[in-house]
Amino acid sequence: MRSVLKIALGVEYDGTAYHGWQRQNNGISVQQVLEESLSKVANHGVQVQCAGRTDTGVHATQQVVHFESSAQRSIRNWILGANANLPFDVSVRWAKQVSDDFHARFSAQGRRYRYLILSRYSRSALWGRRATWTHKPLDLEVMQQAAQHLVGRHDFSSYRAVHCQAKSPVRTLHSLEVGRAGDFIYIDVHGDGFLHHMVRNIAGVLMAIGAGEAVPDWSREVLEHRDRRLGGVTAPPWGLYFVHAEYPEVFDLPNSPRWPYLTEC
CB 3.0–4.6 Å: which of 65, 127, 171, 244 could bond 131 by disulfide? Predict the structure, then answer.
């Protein structure tokens, strides 16, 4: 009788063409194409679990997933076989056999997202669905000032989607940084977990403040309302990237670089 092995994968994808990560009845998802690809390699049905679900149009530079299989395949064959059967906008970056107690979601101790904004007068043909464009000048100093109100452990009810199904709205943000590289502004978020639309709602509030439409203290006022109806506009999905999930060192997962890479221009 063949033993069942647990395999972890690092997956990147351009979410433009997909109805989010999770399987849907009304459209194709990243989970669907990945499971179909792995099932061909394994020669049996495969189901995957992910570190963090992403919405329609959201990207990932290193989504972490795991699955179980009785198929005898080398790590190289899992990677090459999966990629041979995946569409061009989804790719397996690495694979690793892990212990039975590993779980892509429940073993994760932290997650990082990057929200990318193209701030210039004209729109981009190349970054149209990979960054959120605004023609408005954004003040990084006031955005960073506003961001600090959200760092720490808080009730983020005002920053989650109305239909968010999480049992508790309390989350811890370890850091929230705003930076610039040329025409690009990035918002880097690191926390123990995130609510539905939480990062996009934070980005929407910070963008409004950066454009001078609200004062820096507004981010704190929105937080204290604990009511999504009194929150800001949800920023578009195109600029959001799931970039990293943190796990205990005992699992020894590859530490792939975090990107999109941005340098001063």
Answer: 127
Crossing angle of the two packed helices 75-85 and 30-42, in degrees rounded to 10: 130
For domain 110-243, is the CATH number 3.30.70.660? Answer: yes
The CA–CA distances, whole Å, from 110 to 107, 113, 181, 193, 225 equal 9, 10, 25, 6, 26
Q: 10-residue block means of pLDDT along the chain (265 residues)?
A: 86 96 92 98 96 95 96 96 97 96 96 96 93 95 97 96 89 96 94 95 97 96 89 91 95 76 51
Per the DSSP assignment, residues forming a β-bridge with 245 are 111
Check if 252 is active-site.
no
pLDDT confidence of residue 110: 95
pLDDT at 258: 60
Active-site hit among 55, 89, 100, 192: 55
Q: Please report, to the nearest 10 degrees, the dihedral formed by the alpha carbons of residues 252, 50, 5, 40 taken in order.
A: -130
Torsion sign over Cα 11, 41, 71, 73 = negative
**Token pair of 40 as six digits:** 């061909």
User: CA–CA separation, 127 vs 133, rounded Å?
Assistant: 8
- What pLDDT sits at residue 163? 85
User: Which phi and psi (to 5°) does residue 94 adopt?
Assistant: -155, 165
Torsion of CA 10, 16, 17, 21, to 10 degrees: 40
DSSP 115: E
